[in-house]
Amino acid sequence: MRPLLYRDLNEEEKKALRNLARGLSYFARERAYGYIDRIANAYSVITLRQVLMEALRDLKSEYDRGEDVFMPTGKDVETFSKLAELDLSFAKIVASLAISYSWGKEEEGKKQGKDEEKEEFKEEEKVSE
User: Fold this and answer.
1) Would you say residue 113 lies in a domain?
2) Domain range spanning residue 84?
3) Total structural domains in the chain?
4) pLDDT tens for residues 22-76?
């Protein structure tokens, strides 16, 4: 039996992985990598479940405090859990995506800010002419 690959997943399964990573990216943005590292390095499904439960509990607490966090659905968690039971390497994919999503928003904001500065500068040049 060949290993299950990311490209073999259907769109709903891929969405579940992305949604879980999107939620976990909050911790990466806060430079709190503990959960992400533990998920990536989980050596058993039992360990992964424990870490995931702790991470989701803390994520929910942050959400309840009014932080801007994305909460994955129960269906997302179920789908991810089923995939991890088939192949634990999906946990590494989720952890990697969580880290990459964390800087994507920040970098996009920086890039957008520079573009806005350029536009403002162009407008100022037009006015001064």
Assistant:
1) no
2) 11-103
3) 1
4) 999 999 999 999 999 999 999 999 999 999 999 999 999 999 999 999 999 999 9
- For 59, 73, 97, 108, the CA distances from 104, given in Å and listed in that order, are 20, 22, 10, 6
- Which CATH number characterizes residue 87's domain? 1.20.120.1610
Can you spell out the DSSP letters for 60-105? HHHHHTT---PPPPHHHHHHHHHHHHH-THHHHHHHHHHHHHHHHH
Exposure on the CB side of residue 53, measured as CA atoms within 13 A: 6
- Entry pTM: 0.77
CA distance 71 to 61: 11
